[in-house]
Every structure is written in C-alpha cells, then in structure tokens.
Automatic annotation (TrEMBL):
It comes from Streptomyces gilvifuscus. It catalyses: beta-D-fructose 1-phosphate + H2O = D-fructose + phosphate; beta-D-fructose 6-phosphate = dihydroxyacetone + D-glyceraldehyde 3-phosphate. It comes from the Bacteria. Keywords: Hydrolase, Manganese, Metal-binding. InterPro entries: ARMT-1-like_metal-bd_sf (IPR036075), ARMT1 (IPR039763), ARMT1-like_metal-bd (IPR002791). It holds the Pfam family ARMT1-like_dom. Its cofactor is Mn(2+). This is Damage-control phosphatase ARMT1 family protein. Belongs to the damage-control phosphatase family. Sugar phosphate phosphatase III subfamily. Residues 23-362 form the Damage-control phosphatase ARMT1-like metal-binding domain. Coiled coil: none annotated. Gene3D superfamilies: 1.20.930.60, Uncharacterised protein PF01937, DUF89, domain 3.
C-alpha cells in the first residue's frame, strides 16, 4: 500500500497564529452575538458565562451525563481531551466542540423552551432576506445559456465567501469585490465527471446557509435541468454549527426563497421543489457532518454512500480542512495524494479562509507569497476548484 503523506496537525496554541485568534477572539465574539440574538433567561446567560470562562481561561469540560451524543463524542476524542486546554488539542477538534458546547448552553438538546431553536437563525434569515440576495437572484435572468453552468459553478464557489462567522473578524468580507483569484481550477475535470445524459448521483456536502446555499441549490437545479445527474443528495448539518452552516430548516427556507422570487430564480426553485417531492433530491443529516475529525476517518456507512456517487462536491473551508486533513502541508503537496482516502471522485469548492492548502503549483505559490506574504491563505479573497477524478 502506498504510504499516506503526513504533516504536523494544526493546534491552536501558536502565539500570533490564525487558529489562536479564532479560539481567543472569535469564539468569545460568537458567545456575545448569541447572547444578544434572543431574550434568553438567566440560566442561559449563566451557562454562556461558564462557556466563555471555560473557552478563554479554562479547560475542555465533558458533556453532561444526559447528553444523547456523549458516547459518540467520547469516541471522537472527548475521552482523551477533556481536562486539557482548548489551545493544546487539534484546532479542528476544539472549534467543533465549541459549537457543541454552545448549543448545550442555550438548551438546544434538552427538553425545554430552547430545544431545537437555532441560536443563529436571526442572522441566517437576515442574510436570506437581504437586498444582495435579490440582486444575485435577479442576475440569473441575464445569464446566457452557453455560460450558465460555469456561472453557477462560480456562484456556488464564491458564495462560500458569504460566511457569517468569517464576517465577525473581517467586516468587508461579504461585500468587497471578489478578487479573480482562482489559485487552482480543475473545473474542466469537474464537468467531465457530470456529462450531459448522466445517470449518476451528485452528492453535495454543503457548508453555509443563505448566500452560499442558494447558489449551491441553483447549481443542483441546473444539473437536473441539463440532464447531467439523475439524483442529488444534499448533506447538511444535523444541528446549528459554525454560525452559518446549513441545516435542513435552512434548505427549506432557501427553496421557498427561490420559488417566491421573480423570474428565472423561481423556475430553478420549482425544479428543486419537484425533485424533492419525487425523491430525486434528498437532504441528509449524517452525525459525521458535525464530527471534529477529518474525512479520512469517516464511518463505513458514509464511505459506502459516497463511493456510489458520480461526484461528491465538498463545499467550503472547513470541509476542505476535513477533506485533506487540518495539517501544515507544504502547499505543493498533490491534492490527489491527500484525498486518496476518499471513496470516490471528489471536488473541493472553497474560498481560502484558513492556513491549510494543498495542490498548488510552485509558481502559483511563489506569486501569492510575493504579492501577499501569507495573507492569501486566510483572507477569503482567493478560491479553488480542485478535483480528484
Ligand atoms: O464556512 P467555511 O468556509 O467552512 O469557513 C469556516 C471557517 O471558519 C474558520 O473555522 C475560522 O472560524 C475557518 O478557518 C473555517 O474553516
């Protein structure tokens, strides 16, 4: 068996690093934002205070004995990491566990008034209702048939920039013009895996709701309309995660937003509506979608499902980190090598919002470093389409 490539796992403890700033600054900001989202009662405020204390000054706490997913989390690393500093464990793990603990603080999992209430819903709905969303949908009316596929692929790709958590630390991120900064572009290979008259299944592992999920859905509708796929499976998160990650409720809100829109957007919405109604488009929530682990560790049932897809499209920065492994790879490490574990053809569509990168050619890396030192890795102004057929 060929030997799998490796590189150091990213932790949160390096002074001045991006991961450290997420743990030390972004997570407290998210707690503040959630605190103000709803008129929570005193017990929730106390629980949020305790989480703030734990994640800034304390250690990783276990889940309550009543938590239905406690065993799962123990096997995902909690047994090993409880009692350790949030900064000293893999950053992928500590970020993911932060969101699990945040939901605990607002009573998301326990019977009571907070059960099932998405603490991020006000921000997601505001984005879906924003005038920018109207403008993006109106632009569909002007697309020429010849370019539609590529335009929708780019819409889905750059939609990943509109990430609510990301905007907490970069106020201009959602509005600045997208630099035409594709650092890798395998879109020809992607289209070759989805030929017209395709009879296969597309799996799309979604990332953010709102202005990312809408273009993801438009892309899926386009693939149905063009006969490039027979079925599509949209994987979303089983519970609110990373502020804006899509859940099943967000999918329904987005499809309704489309069917209620004027012009071409409504036609795409109707394609999706009927595909959902007759079962060609299904929404899946797999527990592993919120796991703090790389996809190399995916469970067998998910592995079997993805093995049967004509293509799995993996959206966004976090999913990229999970796909290639959240490690300090030399940027020229081949994408095909770090995704060799994946059970079928896979495409990553991602704007660059964290240090992890693979699959660059040496000239591209040198050009980016010369122009921006290392800022291109996290600024969200560059993007990639990488495919392993
Ligand atoms: O929504 P996306 O594209 O997965 O981005 C979320 C990103 O937020 C961060 O976790 C930082 O909070 C990124 O590094 C991460 O990967």
């Amino acid at each position: 068996m060929p030997h799998a490539p490796s590189a150091p796992v990213i932790l949160g403890n390096e002074p001045g690093s991006f991961p450290r700033s997420v743990l030390a600054e972004r997570h407290p900001a998210i707690i503040r934002q959630v605190r103000e989202a709803f008129p929570y009662g005193p017990a929730t405020h106390r629980a949020l205070d305790a989480l703030l204390d734990s994640c800034t000054k304390g250690v990783i706490e276990p889940l309550p004995a009543t938590a239905g997913d406690r065993d799962r989390w123990e096997s995902w690393g909690l047994a090993e990491y409880a009692g350790r500093s949030w900064y000293d464990v893999p950053w992928l793990w500590s970020e993911s566990y932060f969101y699990r603990q945040l939901l605990d603080a607002v009573g998301y999992f326990e019977p009571g008034p907070g059960q099932g209430i998405d603490p991020f819903r006000p921000f997601k709905l505001a984005e879906l209702d924003a005038p920018e969303t109207d403008e993006e949908l109106a632009a569909l009316d002007g697309l020429s048939t010849r370019d539609t596929g590529q335009a929708l692929l780019h819409g889905s790709l750059w939609g990943n920039r509109a990430d609510l958590g990301f905007r907490l630390s970069d106020a201009g991120a959602g509005t600045a013009a997208a630099v035409p900064g594709l650092v890798a572009d395998d879109s020809d290979v992607l289209w070759s895996l989805l030929p017209p008259s395709g009879t296969g299944t597309l799996v799309l592992i979604a990332d953010n709701a709102g202005r990312e999920l809408v273009p993801d859905l438009l892309l899926i509708a386009h693939l149905f309309d063009g006969g490039r796929v027979e079925r599509a499976v949209l994987h979303v998160k089983p519970y609110p995660y990373y502020v804006s990650d899509a859940t099943p409720a967000d999918v329904l809100d987005a499809v309704r937003r489309l069917v209620d829109a004027p012009g071409a957007a409504a036609a795409y919405g109707r394609t999706l509506w009927s595909a959902m109604t007759d079962g060609r488009l299904t929404v899946r929530v797999h527990p592993f979608s919120c796991a703090p682990l790389p996809y190399a560790d995916m469970p067998d049932d998910l592995r079997r499902e993805l093995a049967g897809a004509a293509l799995t499209v993996v959206k966004g920065d976090l999913n990229y980190r999970r796909l290639v492994g959240d490690r300090r790879w030399p940027p020229t490490t081949p994408f095909a090598e770090v995704t060799a574990h994946f059970p079928g053809p896979v495409a990553a569509l991602r704007t660059l919002k964290s240090d992890v990168i693979t699959g660059l050619d040496a000239d591209t890396e040198a050009g980016l470093v010369a122009a921006e030192e290392q800022r291109w890795r996290t600024s969200g102004t560059h993007a990639l389409v990488q495919v392993r057929a």
